[in-house]
Write a structure and sequence with these properties.
The protein has helices spanning 6-14, 98-106, 109-125, 141-150, 193-205, 224-236, 248-257, 270-279, 290-293, 295-311, 330-336, 339-343, 348-363, and strands spanning 21-31, 36-46, 49-54, 64-75, 77-82, 128-133, 158-161, 165-167, 187-189, 210-214, 240-245, 261-264, 282-284, 378-381, 397-400, 403-407, 410-411. It is of the alpha/beta class. It has 2 domains: 6-75 and 370-411, Urease, subunit C, domain 1 (Roll), CATH 2.30.40.10; 77-363, TIM Barrel, CATH 3.20.20. It has an 8-stranded mixed beta sheet with strand order 3-2-1-4-14-15-16-17, with no helix packed on it. A 4-stranded parallel beta sheet has the order 10-11-12-13. A 3-stranded parallel beta sheet has the order 5-6-7. Helix 6 (224-236) links the parallel strand 10 (210-214) and strand 11. Helix 3 packs across helix 11 (330-336), helix 6 (224-236) packs parallel to helix 7 and helix 7 (248-257) runs parallel beside helix 8 (270-279). The termini are far apart.
Length: 435
Amino acid sequence: MRVVFPFLLLVLSVFPSSAQTVVIRAGHLIDVATGRVITNQSILVEDGMITAVGDRVAAPDGAEVIDLMDDYVMPGLIDAHTHLALMEMDGSDINDHGSYYYASLIEDTSMRVAQGTMMARSMLESGFVWVRDTGNNGLYGDVTLRRAIEGGWIPGPNMVTAGRMIAPFGGQFQMQPEKPGLGNPEYLYADSHAEIIRGVRENVHYGATFIKLIIDNQPYIYSEEDVRVAVEEAHDMGVKVMSHATSDEGIRNAVLGGVDSIEHGFNPSDETLELMKERGTYLVGTDFPASRVGERRHQANVERNKRAYAIGVPMAFGSDVVYYEEGKTRGQQTLEFLDSYVHAGFPNEFILRMATMNAADLLGANSGEVKAGKNADLIAMPANPLNDIHALRDVVFVMKDGKVYKRGGQFIWETPVVLNNPRRKQPRGNMLRQN
């Protein structure tokens, strides 16, 4: 008679559903690449990967079968601009930066990670299986959060992390001369090429998997040559570069310097947008709802989006949520940012691509589509988001890396007993060529 130790049974019972082989019966499968719905499909998941998709995929012996015949199944969502370890506690208007600076100055990294633990779970529960955390997290709070998720300590999406932002002196703050260090540890100030190189290396050494540059928040801005120094150093290590840039000059310097994405990018000329299309530089617009920034600013963003879409600029979804709103989780708030693209007249299928395959391409994530060879990152909902993008607000099923975290609208998580080692070594060599 085979003996199964009670401790082993306990370990197996506390993790999210993670059968080695799973077959998902999808009544309506959304192909985000084409904007089509394919009916009566089966998705074979083995060891966290999709290995087959089609109408004749049989369930291997012992496989778990998940019935989603009444739902719409699609790739999990991706937010390419998050701040999980930052929250404006009073929910003040985004134009009043007082609470943002307040949180940066008085909240230590441990508190920021504690907040991020809650927000990471809410993002996963809302269907976000990948996020790119873009700074403002204290002293590498985002890296700690990512390692905790990777190690199985807490539930959350897969994360790409920027660590500390590299910026000219002052960063995004206006400081006083008696206290020149108030920007630490949010920023790595770098004003020479040697300092920029050191900033990139220090970030990667401490666990950053993406580099963020602050281009134009001061009267002095990074030049094209400054940006190129950072990009060449980061790309040589296989790490991509994003740039916070809002002015046309700043955006253009960043694009010519070779960055992989422009964050915010509120005021580009058509010539600069054409350059972004030519270089394949992603625009991550971070377009807040009108209720947060006012109708004038919102309409300016809508107008920019219309121009970028007409020109054919690569675009990925990113929210930049940093505030707290009573009665809403971080995941629910993030989904509201999709309305900005609805208001710009984007087709729903393009909005879905922005939040799946486009964002996956930018992050270098093997996700964003439901096809063989991709990570098993899947969500499902009762209604078709191709008809109404607001259907994404009712995600009832979430699978990340082949594990089920939400089923029948209920989140699945209990404290694990055995954990993995969350400290992973950084990749060596230029991984960019493999993405």
